[in-house]
Amino acid sequence: MSLWRSLPRWSLGILLMLVLAALIVPWLSPYTYFAPSWDEIDLGPQWHSGHLLGTDDLGRDLLVRLMWGLRISLLVAVCASLTSLVIGVLWGVTAGFIGGRVDAWLMRAVDVLYSLPFIPLVVVLTVLFGRDLVLLFIAIGAVSWLDIARIVRGQTRSLREREFIVAARVGGLTDAQIIRRHIVPNLAGLIMVYLTLTIPSVILTEAFLGYLGLGAQAPLTSLGTLIADGASQMRARPRLLICPAVLLAVLVYCCNRLGDALRDRFDPASQSL
Amino acid sequence: MTTSAASAAQPQPGHLRRQIDQPPRTLDPGLSVDVPAQRVLDDLFEGLVRLDAAGNVIPAVARSWEISADQLQWTFHLQPDVQWSDGTPLTAADFVYAWRRVVDPATASQAAQLLAPIVNALQIASGKLPPEQLGVQAPDAHTLVLRLVSPTAWFAYQLSNNCLFPVPQHVLRAHGSAWTRPGTLVSNGAFVLTDLRINGAIQLARNPRYREAGAVSLQRITYYPVGDRSASVSRYLAGDLDVTDGFPIEDIVWLRQQLGSQLQLAPYLGTVMFGMNHTRPPFNSAPLRMALNLAVDRELLTGKLLQGLYLPAYSLVPGDAQRPALQPEWAQWSDEQRHAKARQLYAQAGYSAQHPLRVELAYPTSGPDTRRVLEALVAMWQVNLGAEVRLANEEWRVHQQNRLLSVHQLFWNAWIGDYPDAQTFLDLYRDGSAQNHGKYLSADYERLMAEGVATGDNAQRQRLWREAEMQLNADAAYIPLYYYQSRHLLRPWVQGWQSNLMDRHASRDLSIAAGPPR
Amino acid sequence: MLRFIAWRLLAALPTLAVIITLAFFLLHAAPGGPFDADRAMVPEIRAVIEARYHLDEPVPWQYLRYVGGIVRGDFGPSFQYQGVSVNELIAQGLPIDLTIGSLALLLALLLGMPLGMVAALRRNSLADRLCTGLALLGLSLPVYVTAPLLILLFAVTLQWLPAGDWGEGAWRNLVLPVVALALPYVAYIARLLRASLLEVLQAPYIRTAWAKGLPASQVLWRHALRPAMLPVVAFLGPAAVGLITGSIAIETSFGLPGLGRFFVDGAFNRDYTLVMGVTILYGVLIVLANLLADLLQAWLDPKVRL
After folding, report:
1. Which of B372, B377, B380, B402 to mutate to test the interface with A (most CBs of A within 10 A)?
2. Are strands B358-364 and B410-416 parallel, antiparallel or unpaired?
3. What is the ipTM of this complex?
C-alpha cells in the first residue's frame, strides 16, 4: 500500500487546514491579536462584525488570538521536535554505528537521563532562561530526544549488519559516506513517525508551561496560555476555555492519528505508545 | 445553574472557614511579614492594642496608655490577670522579650525595620548595640514604657501589627524554633492552634483562657491556603468556604449577577504605579515622564477593563474617610486636552513618529490580571503617543531582585501601606530608602519629609505630607495607575464583618448566624 | 532475583548523582534568591540569614555540604517555611502523592484494559473506533483542562463532591483528583493493550487454541492476556513519570498539599532545598517504578531473563 493511501484522510486534512488557517486567518482578519477594543468587550460570536468566535475581555478577536496561539504552539512544537530529532538521531546513529564501548556508554547515559524527572527540570530551565522563545524550544527539545535516540540506535544496529552495508564497506566507502548515503535514508521513515509523535507531546509540554505562567511573552500567546487564561475565566466566559481546549485536543488528536498510521506503516513491530 | 448552587450551601454552626492566598511561612509573630500569616496571627495572638471590626485602634492587652507632652514616651498599663493559653500569666516582660527578639540580629527577623521608630531599634538591628538597649522597659509586671525616636502618631496602629505581639518566653526557651507547632504553640488570643498542615488546612479552636473569652462566639476556624483565585471561587460556590480573600477580576460581572451582596469591595490602602529610573535616559527627562503619565486613560482602565474593581489613581496616596486622594488639576481635563498636552510634552522630550520612544516595561509574573492591564496600557501609549513600549515579563524573584538593584528603566510597582498615614507611601521616595528603586532625588522633597518627621503637630504634619506629595506629582516621580480595593466573597450568615481600610478582620469579631441565610 | 534488585538499586546511584548535581547548579544559577522581598532588609539581618542558610558560601561548597547532608538522610531546612525541615515536608506530601498516584493507576488499568480488549477483539468495528477515539480524546485533553471542568460540573453545579482540599484523605475528596489524573492513562493503557493484543492474537499458538475449539474467554484470559500485558507492564516506568508530572497540575487545581505543589512553589520561591528534595524523590520513585516494572515483566514472561 502506498504511503499516501495508508494515511488517515481526515486527520491529515484537518491538520493541513489548521496550519493553513494559522497562516492565513490573522492576515485576512481586520483585527489584531493585541489591540484592546473597549467597546467590543465580551461579545459572543457574531457574523456582521467579523468576530466569528466573539471577543475576549479586552475586546480582542478570539479567532485571531486562537490562530496566533496556534502559530506559536506549532512553531515551538516543530522547532523543539526538530531539536530533539537532531540530538536523538546524532546520538543514536553514533551509538548504533560505532558500537562497542562507545555504544554502551552512550546508551547508559540515555538510561540515566531516562530516570530524570523532566518536567520539573524544564520548569527550572524556563524559570532560569526566562521568556526567550528560542531557549524555550531548546529546553523542551533537550528533554524529548531519548526515545528517538533509542529507536534510531536499534535501527542503526540492525542496518549495520545488512548485506548492502557490508557490500558498501567492501566497496571502499568510508564510514561517513556509509552513514550519509545508506543509513540515514533508511531511517527516514522512522524519523518521520517519531517526529509526528513527538509533536503532540511537545505541544502539551509547552501548553503546560504556558499554564504555569512560563510561556510566550504577552501579548503573544500560545494555546497553553490561552487555556490557562480561559480556565481562570471558566465560569464567566466558558467560550474562552472551550475554544482553545477543543483546538488543542483536535491538533493533538490528529497528530497522534497521523503518527499511528505512519508507525503502522514503517515500524509495525514497535510496541511503544 | 449556579444561583441554586450558591443558595444550596449551608453554614457550619460555630465553624468559620476562611481562605488565604498562601500558606503562612511561619506562625512566629516576630518573624512573620506576609499577609496570610497576619490573618492567622490576628486570631492566635493579641498585642497591646487591637483593631475593632471598623479598623479603629482600641485597647487590648493594654487597658490604657498615656503619651508624654513631647510625644516621645508612651506608658502602657496592662490588664491584670491576662493569661497565656497554657495558664501562665502574661506580663509586660513578655512584650519586652518579644520586641528585643525582633530587632536582635541573631533572630534574623525580616520584620525588624518595622520597629524603626523605637529608640535604638535600627542600631540594634545593625549590630551596633545589644538588644537590651531597645527603648522599651517594663518597670513592673503590668506597666510598659516605650520611647520613640520622634513623634510618631501612627505607631499606635503599628502596635497591632504581629511583629509587636508578645511571645511566651517560657515556651521559646523550652522548645526553640519548634515552638510554633500545634501542641507546643502557646498564644494569648481568642483562638489556639490545634492542627497545621503546610499547604493544607490550619485548624484553630476557641481559647477558653482568652482575656474576653465570653465575647467570642466562634468555636472553630479553619484556614485553607488556596493559591489560585479561580479555584477559591469554585470552593466558595461549592459551599466549602465562608469567606474568600479575593476573587478573580474576570469573574466580577458574573459574580455580581450570581452572588449580589456577597461580593465585598472596599477601599484598601494600596497603590499600583509604574516606577521609572530617574538617573538614566530616557526617563531622566521630566517632560517624557509627564507625557507617559498624561497619556494613561485611567477611567477607561478601571471602568471598562477592571469593571470598577479598582479606583483610578492620579497620585500616590490613597484617600480615606478623612481625606480624599489628591488629584492634580489635569485630572479634570477632557481626554482630548490631556492627550494633546501629552503629545506636546512627548515632542518636547525629543520623540516623534519617526523617532518613537522604545522602551521595555518590566513586570512580575502574577497571573492574567496584571498582564491584561499592561497589554491595555501598552496599547494606550501606542495610540495616544506613538510610543513603542514592549512588555518584559520576569518571574517574581527575578523582578524583585532587579528592582532592588535598579536595573529596570520602566517597571511595575505596588505598595501596600503598613499603617494608615501618608508617610508609609512617602517614605518610598526618600533618598536612601531601599524602596526608592527609581532613585528619585529632590532637595525640596527631602526638606519637606524631614520637617514632617520632626514635627509633633499632627495637622502640620499632614499639611507637609500633602506638599511633599504635590512635589512628587509635579516632578512626575511615578505614574500612578489605580488604588487597590479589598475584595472578598462573604456568605450572608457570617456576621460582624465590616470593611476597613487596612482589611484586617479578626475572627473574634465574627459569628455564624443560625438558620437560613437572609 | 535479590542480586538483580541490589544491582539495579546500585546502578541507580549514578542517576541520582546526575539529578542532584544538575538540579543543584541549575537552581543556584537562577537569578533571585529565597529571601528577596518587596521590603528590602537591613543589610546586617540579611547577612545573618544568609549565613544561617550558608548562602554566603561559594556554590560548590554549598553543594558539597548539601551532598553530605543527603548521605546522612538530611534534606536540609526549607527556606520558605521557617523552622520546618524538608524531610518533614516530604513526609507530609509523599503519602498524598502515593495515594492519588496509585489509585489513578489502578483506575486507569480498570478502565483502560477493558477498552483495549474490546477494541482488539472487535477490530475495525464501530466499537473499536469508539474505544480508540475515546482513548485518544483522553490523551489530547491536558489535566489542567479536565480538572477545572470536573470541578465545575461535580462540585459547583451538582454539589456532589468537594471542590478541593485533602480533607485527611476522605474518599470524597479523592474522587475528582484521581479521575482527572487517570484519564490520560486510561488512553495510554487502552492503546497499548489493543496493539499488543492484536499482535498476540496472530501468534500460532493462539491459532492452535482456536482450532482446538476453546471458548473465546479461555483463549483470551488464559493464553493471550498474559503475554499481551507485557508492554503495559513495561509502561509502568514512564507512567510513574507521567503521574508525577500530572500530579503537579492536579494538586494546583484541587489545592492538595502534595509534593507537586511544593515543587512548583519552591521553584518560584527559590526554596533550593525543597526543590532539590522533591526532585531527588521523584528520581527515586522513577527508579523504583522501573524496577517494579521489570520484575513484573519477568514474572509474566518467563522468557525475559533478569
Report:
1. B372
2. parallel
3. 0.78
